[in-house]
Amino acid sequence: MNKNKEVDVVIIGAGVTGLVTAFYLIEKGLKVLVLDKSDRVGGQMESIHEDGFVFESGPNTGVVSNAEVVELFQKLHPHCSLEIARKEAKVRLIWKDGAFHPLPSGLSSAVSTPLFTLSDKIRVLFEPLRKKGDDPFESIGSLTKRRLGKSFLNYAVDPFISGIYAGDPSKLVTRFALPKLYNLEQNYGSFIRGSIKKASEPKSERDKLATKEVFSVPGGFGELTKALKEKIKEENIRLSVKSISVQPVEDGWQTFLSSDEQIHSRYIVSTAPAFALPELLPFIDEKEMNPISSLRYAPVIQVGVGVTKADGHVPNAFGGLVPSCEKKKMLGILFPSSCFSHRSPEGGGTLSFFIGGSKHPEYLDYTDTQLEELVKESLCTMLGFPHGYTPDKIKIFRHERAIPQYEADSEERLTSIERLKEQYPRLFLAGGIRDGIGMADRIKQATRIAEEIVNLK
Ligand SMILES: Cc1cc2nc3c(=O)[nH]c(=O)nc-3n(C[C@H](O)[C@H](O)[C@H](O)COP(=O)(O)OP(=O)(O)OC[C@H]3O[C@@H](n4cnc5c(N)ncnc54)[C@H](O)[C@@H]3O)c2cc1C
């Protein structure tokens, strides 16, 4: 076997970021090798098919928040296509005082909802008049309380942040975690004024592709990574690679594998999580690496539930989120079968429970039996399944380091990444360590990195 290989680009990580980067580079004629320590592609994304049910480990849905998502699926057609969620996905439920309530979607529901206090509802009317903040490190919690009031923090933003970041609004910094919201206040002085102005600004045809709709793919996200893998071709992907370390050499990079193989490349793209970087990139000194590798991740336990007879107990909604002030052991429940086709046998349903998050890492220590009991109890108390009900399927997925938390240390991390980019222009540090944590963010980042490499070449 030839122990020395030569490619244009080595990509570390076969999650969606690595796969999309590889897909575009190969399309442009570059020679690419994707390396992953896992024995499968997909990283945090995996779909499990069992007896007519589809269970997602990792994301259940994405948002068409940028044109790059649509363009990727246009390229993958007909091997993999976008499945836009049914209109029911617009209904978001919030748990309060022992029941789920829909998050208001219009003026009359906003007036009548029991989720927010009367004084906060009145307060919102004056949001456009409120002074804009001047703390670039202000947390999402503080910003919400200042502009909208405490009940909006507790019953809208806190559950929304649990749903996206599994995080703590008092620790996540708005400028890094929700930059669009931060910019609305900074650029327009108000969320309401900014949203109205932005909606009336002219949009290019490309911008219009970002419909903000909720999406998945038929059969689950595993089909997306499968389609990408097929396009990239097996010979350009190496899985179960136990140890990888990279060193700069005069004309590029040398990647050393535990099998004694060496790969020479002009570019390196790392999509591995922050904590994996010191071992992968040992040439970066500790002072520069620490602010990156210390990025904190929230743990998430996901429990997929399949029922063959839903009997009206799986709501026609996107999901139900649980505010932390309600003190339940649940971050929320998604209802994928209400949003997408063929997720369960006819008449049945799938549910995805989320437990843990940065506020409750201790649930990682729950045994499978404890988690099953917790889910069974919640099916009865929160969704009205009969007392003692046992679902047909329960699948437990533990993500010890699931979602990166963009907290106050993000400034230092991003500065270090920028400095390294200046020092090593052919090294791309990518993945969730920057540019957003959602799947659409990953697709956009990967597309841009591929473009940058093609332009540099
Ligand atoms: C529970 C959960 C729920 C989520 N829900 C949503 C959602 O609803 N909507 C949404 O948009 N996003 C969601 N996300 C986020 C989304 O899944 C991620 O943004 C996306 O999948 C990350 O892709 P990635 O390729 O950047 O990273 P990863 O998928 O983490 O891929 C990184 C790859 O690097 C590999 N790797 C790590 N270390 C090494 C090493 N030393 N050597 C070689 N390879 C290595 C890993 O094996 C992995 O395959 C969720 C994530 C989780 C965990």
From TrEMBL:
Q: Name one Pfam family in it.
A: Amino_oxidase
Keyword Transcription regulation tagged: no
* Obligatory cofactor(s): FAD
**Primary localisation category:** cytoplasm
Q: What class of enzyme is it?
A: oxidoreductase
Amine oxidase domain segment(s): 17-453
Q: What is its EC number?
A: 1.3.3.15
Q: Which reaction does it catalyse?
A: coproporphyrinogen III + 3 O2 = coproporphyrin III + 3 H2O2
Q: Does the keyword ATP-binding apply?
A: no
| Role according to the record | Involved in coproporphyrin-dependent heme b biosynthesis. Catalyzes the oxidation of coproporphyrinogen III to coproporphyrin III.
**What NCBIfam families does this protein's entry cite?**
proto_IX_ox
* Name by which UniProt lists this protein: Coproporphyrinogen III oxidase
The organism's taxonomic lineage, starting at the top:
Bacteria, Pseudomonadati, Bacteroidota, Bacteroidia, Bacteroidales
